[in-house]
Amino acid sequence: MSYSKKTNKFPEFLRSKCLFLLVVMVSCSPPEEPVKCSTKNSNCTITNSYGTFADRAVCRAGNVAFPTTEQELVSIVSAATEAKRKMKVVTRFSHSIPKLVCPDGQDGLLISTKYLNHVLKVDAEAMAMTVESGVTLRQLINDAAKAGLALPYAPYWWGLTIGGLIGTGAHGSSLWGKGGSVHDYVMDMRIVSPAGPKEGYAKVRVLNERDKDLDAAKVSLGVLGVISQVTFKLQPLFKRSVTYVTKNDTDLGDEAMTFGKLHEFADIFWYPSQRKAVYRIDDRVSSNASGNGLYDFTPFRPILSLALALLRSTEETQESLRDADGKCLSAKLVTSTLRTAAYGLTNNGIIFTGYPVIGFHDRLQSSGTCLDSIDDSLITACAWDPRIKGEFFHQTTFSIGLSVAKSFIEDVQKLVALEPKALCGLDLYNGILMRYVKASSAYLGKQEDAIDFDITYYRSKDPMAPRLYQDILEEIEQMALFKYGALPHWGKNRNLAFDGVIKKYKNGGEFLKVKNMYDPSELFSSEWTDQILGLRNGITTMKEGCALEGLCICSQDIHCAPSKGYLCRPGKTFQNARVCTRVKIRN
């Protein structure tokens, strides 16, 4: 059967079959190691779980070390410091999109926390838990629950390590209590950082809530040293009640302002081109409430590699044919399938029988079963596994203060009114996830109560190929960053999101003072971290096609793809934006 742009029968048939397979698969190949070495632990390359960084560069290192104890970690940092070697920390799954794990040059040292993966202490009476930095979020959640305890808020993906999620400021969704950022529940932390010869070239810094340096260490981007251990303040385990409600997005701006204050774990899936929003009504309930619900989020489950290849091929065909209608039809099928399947919620761990879904917090707060199973030779995989033909995307994620978030939402709606099909591609990745975040004391944490907008969208394998409606997504990105002063998520985003970002943090200077004190020789710093911290220029790169991948904001036509009809022009509603616009006849 051949592809028909007019009818879309072929991709829709495939997509419906693939989504069925997406829901029912239960086994998976675990992700590949992010570090590969040509000889034993030497001459190495490092990547992330998606197989590429924003600039598609290959990062190299001379060696990788795998400490199993804090004592071994101190010895490794000591030897590297004495030799004046650059160092970077790498985690088991390496989920950060920016180049936070890349040391300068080709002779640096990677320090993996893969085997620093032990839960050291659970104190039920004090409601505290101490873990090594390589412990995964899933381990923490499960071991806490066994002791009748809970980390109140967490990212929805459990394949993150404690060191990694703290270092990048990862969060869940809540304006209640201290908010949804995991680092704001840190009581104590131990960091191994460089030292002088009198201290043996390395020292363990022990921080607690009375130390101001903890506000620097909570979100450190890995430039202060290696986090060894973390102690969290937990809560008694509790139950939650979850219900998803779909509404028209006409009043989304007003609704979003109050929704997070009404419900403790509130979030919103926004489908702009469909003009719909799905509200998550999610609150604590009595532990006596009946229910043993489970949230196994559908996109985080293992998926047949063949199904993923067919889905990717369909989207590539739609992009090459500029088939906006096809994308919109596919998007409606994707979102309706996810809603019908309750996004992976079940009332008893097996089937979904209706809302509300009630269950213990540890069974509802985070998921990621595509990480779980034995190797099946890539018959199945996580959707973004780079070893197969699967998802390949950009992620633009930023937080906008609650005081102006309504205006931003309305500006996006104006763009949709001008180009109704422009954001259908977002719905293929389940729309825009809106999470609530609270102001943090961390120097590089959230500066005010805000809404975090998480936008995932198609990325071409060809860096010089413009996307369908490239200009609309660029305008949204620039509007958020420059009109509304949005803060980028440290572990996601394209390069341009970090241009001048340190100026948006009122305590950015205090962070740099701590950095200089902990690592005066800048052994844990790199060109990339220096750029995002404002210590050197070059976070954006002005070259041919740079705007297509978010490596720059276009100022000349050559920064777009003029040979394909894309030229640098002002935005449609935000005139200060400079975007790559297709000036030939549009579909």
UniProtKB/TrEMBL annotation:
Pfam families to which the protein is assigned, alphabetical: ALO, FAD_binding_4, GULLO2-like_3rd
Signal sequence region: 1-28
Enzyme class at the top of the EC tree: oxidoreductase
Gene Ontology MF terms in the entry: D-arabinono-1,4-lactone oxidase activity; FAD binding; L-gulonolactone oxidase activity
A biological process from GO: L-ascorbic acid biosynthetic process
Keyword annotations from UniProtKB, A to Z: Ascorbate biosynthesis, FAD, Flavoprotein, Oxidoreductase, Signal
Pathway linked to the protein: Cofactor biosynthesis; L-ascorbate biosynthesis
Gene3D superfamilies recorded: 3.30.465.10, 3.30.70.2520
Cofactors, names only: FAD
UniProt GO cellular component terms: membrane
UniProt family annotation: Belongs to the oxygen-dependent FAD-linked oxidoreductase family.
Protein name: L-gulonolactone oxidase
Gene expressing this chain: LOC111313977
